[in-house]
Amino acid sequence: MCNKPIGIFDSGLGGLTVLKEIHRILPGENLVYFGDSKRAPYGTKSRETITNFAFQDMRFMLSKNVKAIVIACNTVSSNALEKIKSEFDIPVLEVISPGSAAGLAASKTKIIGVIGTPATIESNAYKKELSDKEASCRIYQKSCPLFVSLVEEGTEFWNNEIAELTANHYLNGLKEKGIDTLILGCTHYPLLKEVIQKVVGPDIKLIDSARSIAELLRDSTTIKMNSTAVKGLVEIFTSDSIEKFMPLCKDILGKDNLTVEHIDIENY
Fold first, then answer.
1. Which of 48, 126, 151, 195 has CB 3.0 to 4.6 Å from 188, enough for a Cys bridge?
2. Structural domain harbouring 134
3. What is the pTM of this model?
4. Both 196 and 67 in a single domain?
5. Is 262 inside any structural domain?
6. Which is the catalytic residue, given 2, 137, 144, 186?
7. Residue 78 host element (H or E)
8. H or E segment to which residue 48 belongs
9. Which residue, of 160, 186, 209, is where some domain finishes?
10. Which of 2, 73, 144, 249 is catalytic?
11. 2: annotated active-site residue
């Protein structure tokens, strides 16, 4: 048993969907979350900038004495993972591989759509991962840069007319490709799931990596889990305004007794 916390970081709010699922599946684990909303979105920035931001996020996580780190950010997972693993000596889990596996498992036709930030789509990380797992798979990708901004603006933008118009703009072409599965290749996107499903229709299965990464963490043989029956502590940090971040945390996690602390991530 090891009661050191598990670290989880993202460019903003999206990774809270991953934290929520990890907390549900591993309720005894202490969790530390950092959302870099001040510098969001990561997905429109250069690979060098994404890597620099990710290294600062990693150093902050290590300052909290974590035993493992979950990169709950597809942009970082697809653009900086190799450099992170070469620089930091700690178990690191990413979201591309489990999300791809879940997408393949759900698809009957193996005609799969992937949406993500420009940096994630341009990296072709999902396309490579899916093709490596299933050579016959047909993959259609689309970057949806405005989705992250909509999520970060607050709950009123998660399922309103603006969100629906934006989703129609991005997704109509994918529907015409005959996909039966759509991988939400950004952890912000599950917060737009209702409007995305409405636009693509009920026959297309939406996949996010939150459950898959939580199950992968649970089944890990290299990370010692905390087997106590006592509920683990959840610490949440942001680089942005606490007054803006906290209400959205409560909306996503469904908890009222949350505390959020501000940090200056550029000090790490």
1. 151
2. 96-209
3. 0.92
4. no
5. yes
6. 186
7. helix 74-79
8. helix 47-63
9. 209
10. 73
11. no
